[in-house]
Amino acid sequence: MVGPDGLIGADGTDGVEGAIGAGGATATGPAADPDPDATAVAVAGFHADWAAMLRTGHGAAVRPGVLNPLIARTAELLHRAAREHPFRPELAEQAGALLIDNQFTDPQLLSEGVQLIQRQPVPDDRGPALGGAFAAGWAAALRERTLREQEAIRLAADTARQEVEKALRASEARFRALFESAAIGIGLGDTDGNILAVNRALGEIFGGGPEDMTGVRVNDLVHPEDTPGVWEAYEELISGKREYFQFDKPYYRRDGEVVWTHLTVSLIRDDDGVPLYQVAMLEDVTDRYRLQERLRHQATHDPLTGLPNRAAFFERLEKIFEEPEPDARFGLCYVDLDGFKIVNDSLGHDMGDQLLTVVARRLENALSPLGHMVARLGGDEFVVLLENCRSEQEAVAAAKTVLAALTKPVVIGDHRLAVGASVGVLERRIATTTPGAAVRAADLTLYRAKEAGRGRWTLFDPKENARAVSRYAVSVRMPAALDRGEFFIDYQPMVDLASGAMTGVEALVRWRHPQLGVLGPEEFVGVAEETGLIMPLGRWVLEQACEQAADWVARFGDRAPRLSVNLAVRQARNAGLVGDIERTLRSTGLDPSMLQLEITESTVVGPEDEALKALHALVDMGVSLSVDDFGTGWSNLAYLRDLPVSNLKIAGSFVGDLHDPAKDTHLGWRIVSGLVSLAHTLGLSVTAEGVESRADAERLRLMGCDLAQGWHFGRPVRPAEIARRIAEADLEAAPEPGLGYES
For residues 35 and 52, what is the distance between their CA atoms, to the nearest angstrom? Predict the structure, then answer.
């Protein structure tokens, strides 16, 4: 459509509606920038440069009523393409097409425009993609315009042929004028492939005159880089099976240089439909082709090292997965430099960049001659792709080559930098995996090499990979699992060894994972600690467990079990711990004396630790403390003296080791007895974990151990089962000491 100011818009718009505002956002633009003033300055600067470029020389023949809206509209489209998320390349393409629609066809304009676009600051490194999209839109529009001109010429040529039959002399003059003055190359040939005539423009494309092309056969113009199918299409045309075809095709000039053309060949028939001639029209697109090649190289290669980048690597990797042979194999060596961050931090990023350049050159020189692709994925991560890998040994050999290439120090200026690497090696049948899964597996294998001590290669292990993937799946889903109600709490009985009565329960959180099934705390609490998710999870467990304990108190009175809840180290060190517990007890109505918190020996690291003050505050509130898994850590008795605890829990591993034939069980029982005596000397009660037999329970009772828990007394169960046991205990007589253990 043509707007009231005469500006023809590729999208039908005609004015400056949606022009760039002070903040750089449009009606459909992104969220506000973190620094609106800086964005406004950048936008204004780009708009001014863009307007100056279009007005200087290129826009001299365009009247202001068209030029000004054109400047505003194209600048707006480019700004939106630079800022909006997700990235919309069609906006930049539309800007390029608008310039062609309004007569801006000078290739110099394209070059200047791409440079200007890539100089403006844009988020997430989309500068090359933005410039490429603009160039693509400009080139596509120019091509469409040229095709329309070519079609007009073809129609004119056909008209000229008909006029020759009616009035030879007049029509031939018109055709000759069109033929000779055309801006694109035109050649006329017979159906046997002989070139009969060419115009001056076509002779110039080939670096000579029209006379140099006359008598040449079309088949002599084959080029090794011809597009697949071009000669099949030519055979179909001269045989009359098709009317025309179009291809981008290279030719050799007379001086040996290569010229790229956009070729359109049409068939001319007589009145009876018999093929007579072929008319070829060639547009020299060498500059455009080279520009596209440069843009593609920039898009697929790392600007620092010159190696293929992540996009090029995945393109190559995915290609080998397209139609592999049944037994085809491949290999990956995922490489990460050891200690690179130290170089960056201590010597500066410029030194780090120089180091990366040397490393890239060494890897390429060592591995490219072997036929392997070396790519830089980002930072100090590289990857080696082995296509048609013959065996696991070949992949390992490539990893050893990587390490050998980095053995010698890198000399940069006055610095001799020792550089090493860790390598994760994967070798698989293509049919057994996918590109994404293979890269993830190689990456996880790399980190196993890092954990094993660095400076080495580690081979992919399916079992280790499965564990790592499961761990990753747990960490990814955990943040939303609480909201989805996937966690629940089981309670394990704690029994008084003297009376056999259930006097307490330990709250144990479980996760009903939709893919992995029910997970115990050992499978996700560690991840929660690492990620900080233990804070909301621990708060939820405490609230749910206290609410359940308060319900038992309301139903069973003094027969209700005392609640024991584990407290993670990060929770104990949290400044809001005392307030959280105080609010929880108040909201649930649970008496503080009914709550025992279990802490580990590593919770408090010294008498001045802030966590120690919080623990004293909890005890002053009426909550009791127990040291969990006592004996597995450092067991600093001085700290134990300072801790306000009232109970020690002997780790279940101690009791379990008492039945290990490879260990001295007599000594083991003496250690347990010593721990019980130590606790009693300090005025503490003792709970034994992991008790699985009546004999162990009886022996612990005779030692004076106060409480015990384990499968002998009951596995972790749902709250309803705990309530059932309390109710049944009311109906039974109290058992004799030492004889009332549940089997």
Answer: 26
